[in-house]
Amino acid sequence: MNDPREDITHPIEVGQIYADDRTGEELQLRYMDRSAVLLRSQVDETHRLSKRVMFEKEVGAGRYKLQGEEEVDADFVAPDDYETVDFEEIDGVGSVAASGLVNAGYTTKGDIRGTADSELLDVRGIGEGNLANIRDEINET
To answer: Choosing a second label site near 138 at 20 to 30 A (CA), which of 8, 27, 57, 110?
Structure first.
């Protein structure tokens, strides 16, 4: 039996948009490593985690069809975006600010990178000073 991955006609890259032939849903490839892919729904922003080999087979078999060639920002998903942040380890961030961030759903470097300062400043315990320290720490590591 032929491996469907042999029928893939394009390189698979982070940032691409695929249409799911079964549901019609558009999904953006947000993360990919040797063993897994993370897809985000363009409709409700939910995520799907899949084994990379299964995703590649489904692309080759035609379930996922690449949509128009989009400009892909090389910095779209940083390799450490899904790394959890221990906010209390950052200078100027105490337990109130740290728990405020976590309770508001900010737990990873990507969560912080993808959120405007004005929104983070609405979190209990976050001010200009400790927000600057958080940004510095996340962009430094």
So the answer is: 27
**Do 33 and 39 touch, CB atoms closer than 8 A?**
no
CATH of 4-66, one of 3.40.630, 1.20.140, 3.40.50, 2.30.30: 2.30.30
Structure tokens at 120: 């983070």
Q: Kindly list the distances between the CA atom of residue 119 and the CA atoms of 50, 105, 112, 126, in Å, as whole numbers in the listed order.
A: 31, 12, 10, 10
Cβ pair 72, 45 in contact under 8 A: no
Q: What is the pTM of this model?
A: 0.48
E strand or H helix that includes residue 93: none
Phi then psi dihedrals of residue 54, to 5 deg: -70, -40
Q: What topology does CATH give the domain 87-140?
A: DNA polymerase; domain 1 (1.10.150)
Q: What is the pLDDT along the chain (141 residues), one digit of tens a residue?
A: 677 777 787 888 888 899 999 999 999 998 888 889 999 998 888 999 999 999 999 999 999 999 875 444 444 556 677 789 999 999 999 999 999 999 998 998 888 887 888 889 999 999 999 999 999 998 775
Question: Whose structure tokens read 């899949």?
Answer: 50
